[in-house]
Amino acid sequence: MALKITVIGTGYLGATHAAAMAEMGFEVLGLDVVPEKVELLASGRVPMFEPGLEELLRKHVAGIEGSTGRLRFTTSWEEVGAFGDVHFVCVNTPQKHGEYGCDMSYVDDAFASLAAVARAGSLAVGKSTVPVGSAERLAGALPEGVGLAWNPEFLREGFAVQDTLRPDRIVVGVPGEDGGRAEKVLREVYAVPVAEGSPFVVTDFPTAELVKTAANSFLATKISFINAMAEICEAAGGDVAKLAEAIGHDERIGDKFLRAGVGFGGGCLPKDIRAFMARAGELGVDQALTFLREIDSINMRRRGQMVEMAREALGGDSFLGRRVAVLGATFKPDSDDVRDSPALNVAGQIHLQGGQVTVYDPKGMENARKVFPTLGYADSALEAVRDADVVLHLTEWREFRELDPAELAAAAASPVVLDGRNALDGERWRAAGWTYRAMGRPRA
Question: Is 268 an annotated catalytic residue?
Fold first, then answer.
């Protein structure tokens, strides 16, 4: 008899996982405690922008004409308990207010509610990013006969559907005792991607929990390293793009995540490395991760450096009365996520210093307005640039790379563009009459 899957928490991670499980052929029931979200998903719509997700959802949500009907949503824990053989817990783990540590309240509440309804013989599977040691503690909260495994997620916003259906690895943490049963069940769940070549890595609980935070810490380190090199290049007159190209040819280093700019943001990397540092301190090994403090510091410093670049482009004086166009609001392209967005942070800093800031983003406008309602917003890049004294390119959307710089130059008060992502074609913009300046490339 085929396994029945529940997904607890239907945010970015949960909604994607639920749709992907239905695509793999399972009957799936998603649960959320927010009725409005359940109603939205049950109608085949998603509360965020993620390429391909809504189409995948509509392919399987029950009640939509032509769908498989394999995917439903509910607010009932009792229904979840009666339905599920495997329960994936996908709730949020935000940073604690005023602290570096991880807020585990949503995970704890989810496991407590699941423990009250889960059938003996079922398996709970944690996917949320949690501090190491959490799985062992949560296993004790489950009733006898209900197993636990930890299966961290590795989704990239903008590629979440692809990453779920064709993951580059599947990591499964199982307990020392009775781990074989959990492994067997999850091999059945992930049979399709494993058959297509996805590696299946079985570990203990602590290792599985550490994999996600270690991976994010490594990526953050690589990004901040090249941004630190950009600071050196600014001082020495070097070209960080050429430097990155040269060292990227070394196969031990590789060329990915070596584009200097305003740094990383979003809902994962910043809070995950901070939670990792906090947990290391609790374990008495805080010195092992002291380098992450500098990684975080370099990253945050990039935002202030972009503000200063904009000030210099305006003659080094006050922003008062100056018009600044910001292209980008999301923390990365192909997403509507503005959490800890460097682009919005820079826009906000300039606004607070008296600048008249106008923002345009292809998908993030609604969320940006919620975070910074006092900024100006335009309906297009052209409208954002109109009468601007300086233009900041801060999110590397394809739409921005394909803009007509000559058309924009005719609209701007002063054709000066600062490329905070090193993603625009500088020669093309200069040929259209722009003064082009990129981070870490003072002479390029």
Answer: yes
